[in-house]
């Protein structure tokens, strides 16, 4: 027991320095005013009041949630069929397809977003291809389409991998039993495959929605600054305006929203499992 505790001390120290301490500083800045002396902190709720009462900031929050939800839904719509098709392949093809899906994630996300800027520009690769068919140029860069496309491209591998993991773990004999009982392929999918894959879908939603709602460089690069999200406001408060107190307050609000969304997805994930046990 003592040996186990001694082994955990380095991890506890690392978590304290890298996670707990920065979060405590964010909370401290969020509830104080700028220019405080170390021993004379002035606590206030003005930073939160400023965000909640300003319609501009609330519109940005609503836009961030809308784009994050839309991105998540698109990732589900595209990712589920892909994951399902991969799960039906043989072991060799399955491994190759998973490798192809994960390969783009080996490249830094910022570099991949810059690549999409070159593809979507008025004189970019996509418009050049469309020009061969007498179409265009189509204005795609610095639009909401470009922002959502960039988010879907960057985050969809997480959705595919989570759903594929659930489908790969599924007991195939359950489908055979459904067929023996006279279920059609559609009924077998709706009654067996889909419920058993829901944990993967829930995990994928978490891994897509959370980074999408707080992303800042994708809308900045592909949106050209025209589609400001919460992440962009937080970045500007820390790096441009120098208002760390207001930026910390927004960060804390987003942390609460993210924790609530994680709690809701966890609750949705637990309920089907409890019904299944019954």
Question: How would you describe the overall organization of this protein?
Answer:
The chain is mainly α and 278 residues long. It has a single domain (56-267), classed as Orthogonal Bundle (MetI-like fold). The protein is built from twelve helices and no strands. Helix 1 (2-30) packs across helix 12 (244-277), helix 3 (55-87) packs antiparallel against helix 9 (185-214) and helix 7 packs across helix 9. The longest helix is centred in the C-terminal third of the chain and has 34 residues, at 244-277. The mean pLDDT is 85.
Mean pLDDT over all positions: 85
Structural class: mainly alpha
**CATH architecture tag:** Orthogonal Bundle
Q: What integer value in Å does the Rg equal? A: 23 Å
* Strand percentage: under 5%
CATH fold-type name:
MetI-like fold
Count all strands and give the number. Answer: 0
Tally of separate domains: 1
Specify the biggest β-sheet. Answer: none
